[in-house]
Amino acid sequence: MSSNEKAAASAVRLPPSTDLRALGPGPVLQDGKSNERAETLRRLLEKGHAAVAPLREPKLILHSHLPHAWSAYFLGASVEQLEELYEHEIQTLVPIDGTFARGAVITRENWRKFLGQKPYTVAYVDFFDQEVERNDRDWENVLRDYLFSGPEPLINGFIGGLGHPFIHLSYAWELQSPTVATEALSLGCTEYIELHGLLDQYPPDNSTYKSTSLAGIIKRVHDDNRFNDLFTDPGITNMGPLLQNRFEALLEHWNAWQVTDPLQQLEQCCDVSVLLGIGTGDRERKFDFFLIHTMTVAHGLRTLWHLFPEEQRSCILRQYALFVIMMYICQLRPAFGVDMIDSIQTVKLDDDCDWEAVVDRTLKHRWFKDSHFFKVVRAPKAFEETYGKKGDFYFKAVVKFLTEFDGWEGFGLGIEGFVPSRDGYRPE
């Protein structure tokens, strides 16, 4: 690492890394566990699977967040709260009807023909449901067959759709749900990002520096004036102009990140995501909707890590880094330096403030029905369960979020047919 790169990396403090040399599965909904909450959850999963499409309006651009709402289950939501969340979320989703392509239109021979085509969102679910049945309900085997095989594995396009295929798939594992797994595969197919080619076969290395620090890379992106004045507003619609006008500069920073220790660098990704998702927000500026996805996708990677073949883990991390760099640029590169961690570490904790109190506060929060709200609380909690307290870094991040959160920002002008200030959720 050059002296300049050392300076950039040292300007962004992260909590101390652990010495984990192995990472086991996270908690799951146990098979056969019979109680009213678990039975309600399973019933609602099946009900939603049969009733609504994985994509929603406008123009099937947005996504169903039904499984994401079940983060509330892992935080202890009651039967009544689970029912309430379902009834609220289902109102925004697209009922499965005769307007969707269905059934045998997708086969084992032609399934790749329709990649990236959103009208086939339900047809892909039908197809993968059939594949699960054909594999005697062994849905994990279906995942292995379709995610990781061939010269252009499907997993290499999973950052499409704001990384929702990764997020959805992680819920499939946590919920041990083949129906959520087939929805995740459907999302992976319809959101298959064209940039998958960068992962299928790495492009020539055009980097001008090298670093194993993702935080250092983000700092270099922040300081790169080639991205100045590229956009006037934040938002996902900046992705097209970014790729059209600054593709080589984007690749330069992406190629600079060296994955030499995937397990340690997964932890680094999780910590960087907390800084980007929570450290950049506050009550005045609100919290950036798109940057928060860097954290929920990182949580998904941690959840799925043991399912990823060892030989593909570095590539999956590089895909995540590409996602983070693109989101950061599209959101106008908010300040990212030493003060980021201070915005979390300086949070004051009351003597009686612990995870039990925080979870109780979460379940009673006025933003309870927001489909992203619980994910933001769960991700740092899962990171602490994996990597330890780190001076209460993750816990303080959640306290900061619960104390200061009063809505999402970062949408810019929105997308055609969806204006967040008009169409997004606001509590009464």
UniProtKB/TrEMBL annotation:
A single MF term (Gene Ontology): oxidoreductase activity
InterPro entries in alphabetical order: Questin_oxidase-like
Record keyword Oxidoreductase present: yes
Keywords: Oxidoreductase
Chain residue ranges for the region called Disordered: 1-35
Pfam families: Questin_oxidase
Alphabetized PANTHER family for the sequence: MGS207 PROTEIN, PROTEIN, PUTATIVE (AFU_ORTHOLOGUE AFUA_5G03330)-RELATED
Protein name as catalogued: Uncharacterized protein
Source species of the chain: Aspergillus cristatus (Chinese Fuzhuan brick tea-fermentation fungus)
